[in-house]
Each structure stands twice: as structure tokens, then as C-alpha cells.
Amino acid sequence: MSATVHHGQIRSIPLAKPVLTSAASMQPLPQSWRMFFKQYRLNPVAKLLLLTASLQLAMAPAQAIPEADALKKLAVVPVFVLTDSKGVPLPMAKDKTLVLPLYLERTKAEAELAILQKANPSLLAKLVAIPLNDMTAKVKQLQLQLKDKSRTLVAPVISSPADRQQAILMLKQQGLSDKQIQEGLAVPVFFTKPFLSLAGPQPASKATAAAEPKLVFFMSYASLQAAIAKVPPAKRAGLEPQVADLSAVLRQIIQSPQDRYVIFPTADYFLLVQKQRLQNQQRPDPKAQPQPQLLSPSPTPASQAPGPASALPAK
To answer: How large is the average pLDDT for residues 80-95?
Structure first.
């Protein structure tokens, strides 16, 4: 199946340009950050370009759900932020730019924390895990608190190098150029063609209709592969991994005629939930935080995909 891409003006979603804290919290830029600035173009007012092919979306005449509700789907995506001992974010200084990375992987954040502490032995820094939707709202508040208005503050979401390389490989196989990928890919999000779906909550009584399954996006390629492995072999062979930028995914969620999408919880989300239960001395309650149940894919209108060749099947 295929879908037609309608070119049009793309409305901005306030996700990739959050702002931070006061200049008093600035730290010198560690050596490792030079490579960061070479790899990522941090344009504080840039409109996140959608790639042609699997990254382009048409402008919809109306929203299916409010942007705030779409962002709430990111509650299962914790990001790890470097802060001082009081929990105040620690942005890095680069000329007139302050950068506060939001790491999707704890291991990567821990490595950067070690570099920061080595460069600043007296600094009492730590990591704080915050849901991405909450962090998006928080940085807006911190922007208002910024005293030095001559500086630009950005908070890019940093995915794992492995996921980024996998996304680049997939997009190059689709014929996209290095320039297109660098301009359009900030945070890779993975899915399948046709889409995998999640079972909705079971109704309390037979008189209540079951919730419609949701189409699933994954924040890591490993999570996608683990989900595909659970699909029966006969259907698994027909699943084609796809990738799009997070900004494109959020636009698709907002512009879809129905609220049919979910973002699969990250591995660190499940670890944090388990840790919280242990801290509260509570036994795990499968009903409170159920592991989503993947269903087999089945055809869905191709117009719901975030790319021209991404038919979205689900039951």
C-alpha cells in the first residue's frame, strides 16, 4: 500500500526548543561536547524540517486531539537531566547558547555526568529523571526565569548513538541524502509497516465495548525488535521497520482523525516504575502498570502513516 504526501506549511510543536535556567547555573563546555555541536545543529528558533518520504506530513485542517493531550503520551518517556545537588538544571555554555541535554538513556547521561564531575570536581551534580512531557512544560517556566536575555537556551532530546545510526541507515536505504537526514532527523522514533498495535484495557463487564487497539511508536530500535519478535512468524515476515522524527510523530498524533496512537514505554520507564514500587515497599501490581500486550498487525488506511510508504495496519 502507498500514501500520497501533500506538501504544505507545517505548524510548530513546542518540543524541540525548550529553554532552561539562569546564567548562574552555567558550566564550562566539556571537551566531549565539541563533537556534540558538530553532530547536532542547535537552532533555537528552527522549524523542525520534516524529511521527504517517511518524514514528511501534510498540514491537516483541524486537530483530532489537543497538543497538550498529545504531549501527555510522552509521560512514559523519562529523560535524564544533569542538575546540581538541589535539582536545578545545569546547562552547558557555548558562546551565546546554553544547552541542557535531555538524555533518553540513563547510561549515556551517567557517562556525561562523570565527564562533568571530572572537569568540575567541586560540583555536586546528579541525574534527575523527568517525564518528557513534564520537562517540556518545565523548560517553558525556566525560560521566564532566565535573567540574561542575551543568551539562547535549548534543550535537545538526545537519543542513543545506536538508534541514531540505525535511523540514518534506514533513511539512506530509502534514498534520503545526508543533508536531508541531518536537517530533518532530531529524535528518531520507530514503527512498522504495517503498524503493530496494543490491546486496550479489558472492559469491566460484557456490556461494555472493548477499547480499540492503539497503533504503536517506539523510542528505541531495540524495543521495536523485541515487539516484532513476539508477533507470530507467519505475520512477522510482513513487518517492515520504519523511522520518523519525533516532531513528525507528534504532528501525526495531533492530526489523526481519531486518537489511535500510543508511544511504547521505554526500558528506563519500566525500571523507574519498579524502583518506585520497591521504595514504597509495595508488591508489584500487574493491574496498576500492565505490560502492554502486542497484537498482530492487520490493514489500516495508509493515510494515517507519518510517511508516504507507511500503511498503518492494526486490528
So the answer is: 89
Per DSSP, the residues of 80-111 read EEEEETTS-B-PEEETTEEE--EES-HHHHHH
Q: What distance lies between CA 305 and its chain's CA centroid? A: 17
- The pLDDT value recorded for residue 7 is 24
Q: Is the pLDDT of residue 108 over 50?
A: yes
What cell numbers appear for 157 in the block? Answer: 532530546
DSSP, collapsed to helix, strand or coil, labels residue 239 as: coil
* 25's grid cell: 547555573
Helix axes 221-229, 161-173, angle to 10 degrees: 70
Q: Which residues pair with 240 in a beta bridge?
A: 193
Q: Which domain holds residue 267?
A: 161-304
Q: How big is the chain, counted in residues?
A: 315
For residue 291, give the C-alpha cell. Answer: 505490560
**pLDDT at residue 188 is higher than 50:** yes
Whether residues 173 and 200 share a domain: the answer is yes
Residue 262 shares a structural domain with residue 274: yes
Write the pLDDT tens digit of every residue in 26-73. Answer: 344 344 433 433 444 333 222 232 232 233 333 344 566 888 899 999
Q: What is the spatial distance between Cα 224 and Cα 218, in angstroms, rounded to a whole number?
A: 6
What secondary structure does DSSP assign to 161-228, as a single string? HHHHHHHHHHHHHTT--HHHHHHH-SSEEEEEESPPEEPPPPPSSTTSPPPPPEEEEBSSHHHHHHHH
Phi first, then psi, for residue 181 (nearest 5°) are -65, -45
Q: Which of 109, 138, 158 is the last residue of a domain?
A: 158
Whether 176 and 133 share a structural domain: no
Residue reference for cell 495496519: 313
Q: What is the pLDDT of residues 249-308, one digit of tens each?
A: 999 999 988 889 999 999 999 999 988 888 886 655 555 555 555 554 544 444 455 543
CB-hemisphere CA count at 13 Å for 17? Answer: 12
